[in-house]
Amino acid sequence: MGDVSGGTGWVIAVNLVLWTGLFLYLLRLERQVRRAERTAAARSAETGAETRGEMMQPRSDR
Amino acid sequence: MTSVPSPAPAGRMSAAGTAFAWLLWAWISAVVVAAFAWAPLAEGFIGQSSRILFFHVPAAWASFVAFLAAGVWSVLYLAKGRRRRHDEAAAAAVELGLVFCVLATVTGAIWARIMWGAYWNWDPRQTSIVLALVFYAAYLVLRGAVEDRETRARLSAAYAVLGLVVAPFLFFVLPRITFSLHPESVINTSGEVEMESRMLTVLLTGSAGFTALFFWMHRLALRLRLLAARNEAAG
What we know:
Number of strands of chain B: 0
Distance between the termini of chain A: 74 Å
Oligomer: heterodimer
């Protein structure tokens, strides 16, 4: 980027910085949301299994 | 102790939400094309450098909107029943505001390299955006430093409310009361808009697009925060 004549290359560079930055941030956010959703689903499945397990117990054991 | 609000169910995006996302990206693509091919070059700028402002200004605007929104959500948190959703919404807005602020700083530095010969000149505009970055980075540091959730939410809400005064001062007042090489704002010091109509159209549609982009990203960031809070509460 030695040229400082203000050519289109600079405007393209600005766009690359901007959209790459936003894309990477969105990608990170989306991955974190998926991970959190998986954790939440696993937790609710565990809780559900526990509840079902409790309900399967004979009344005297509860 | 407030309960953790539930985020929207996984994998559910309404038809309206999908349509909005497509419309948003189409809008932004149109702004990019118009910035390159439709808007004329501004006088007094070197080469194509005036086109950079069609991306730099909307990014700076989106960061300002984000900081303002964080302040409003913080006011709502303090005034309306201390709901966790408001606290997390403010934190997500500050985080996104910082992302847009960093992007505005970098794109501005590239523009400064062309126009002023150096990426960084400590021009009042550059200084004020750094101060804004430091101020809102401190908000996240504050959140990270306080362990008790209620105290953290209350303190950070008070801090973000202070930002309702600090952000307008740093974005609009400080650069106007000091000598700056930076081009005049869209609304200049005389309170008038002296910009070619096509340039103004691209700048305003770009700013509207970035504002919508912020709110769209905010929904995702808030969802993540609420999911994390729920997982944390579940142990």
